[in-house]
Design a protein that fits this description.
single chain; 244 residues; mainly alpha; 10 helices; 81% helix; globular
Length: 244
């Protein structure tokens, strides 16, 4: 009985004081593992694109099903990676026309973009999972401040949640624009040029999204987070020794 109590205490302490690893766990499990396994299976073990995509889909598929069955909610990031892999599996059969081969990459970008924008519409901005670890920084006080702001329990909650949605909207629109630009370029620009220009467009879109989302959303969110953490620390009761 004591053992269980101790374990529960440790779990509660870990929940209240998450480590840096705890904060980055969603990114590691839902994003890094599937992407890393794809490149490892394809480049390291010589698997075909189709086989590598299929096997790298196992973890996000399991995470998505687990969330639906056990937690009664959707795992947005794992679901998005799974959707991208499914689209990629379908597009892997596309061959022959070099312009169509170039255009198919935009199908993946559009899947990600639509997934992000739909998550905002549903009130669960998908890009939050990637942004949160960098703002919380593994600090327990900032983690608690985030929870208060996200739940509506803090004075700055409305502004915080608005900026949280704005962050995902910027990334969704940037990727959607990149998708359209690459699709148009695939059929209007010489193939040899579009081969390298497609990568430039993608990097440029991500760079623009990073700058705009940082100034419009991530920066203000960090200020709100810091203010909330400091306000809570200032409001904490202080024990004063009183002489007899």
């Amino acid at each position: 009985m004591r053992k269980n109590t101790g374990a529960q205490g440790r779990n509660e302490q870990r929940r209240q004081n998450p480590s840096v690893l705890d904060n980055f766990k969603p990114l590691i499990v839902d994003l890094a593992v599937p992407l890393g396994s794809y490149y490892l299976l394809k480049g390291g073990f010589g698997m075909s694109t189709f086989a590598a995509l299929a096997w790298s889909s196992v973890v996000p598929a399991a995470r998505t099903v687990w969330s639906l069955v056990r937690e009664r909610r959707t795992n947005a990031l794992a679901g998005l990676i799974l959707a991208v892999n499914v689209v990629s599996l379908g597009l892997s059969f596309v061959s022959g026309d070099p312009r169509l081969m170039l255009a198919k990459d935009s199908g993946i970008s559009s899947t990600v973009a639509i997934g992000i924008l739909v998550s905002v519409r549903l009130g669960k901005p998908m890009m939050t999972a990637g942004m949160k670890p960098f703002l919380v920084k593994g600090d327990a006080a900032r983690e608690a401040a985030w929870e208060r702001l996200a739940s509506g329990a803090a004075a700055g909650s409305a502004a915080f949640r608005s900026k949280e949605k704005a962050f995902s909207v910027v990334w969704g629109l940037a990727l959607l624009t990149e998708c359209v630009a690459r699709a148009v370029g695939a059929y209007t620009i010489p193939v040899d040029t579009m081969v390298w220009l497609g990568t430039v467009i993608m990097i440029g879109a991500m760079g623009v999204a990073f700058v705009i989302s940082g100034g419009l959303a991530a920066g203000p969110m960090e200020e709100l987070l810091t203010a909330e953490a400091e306000a809570e620390a200032g409001a904490a009761p202080v024990e004063v020794a009183v002489g007899a």
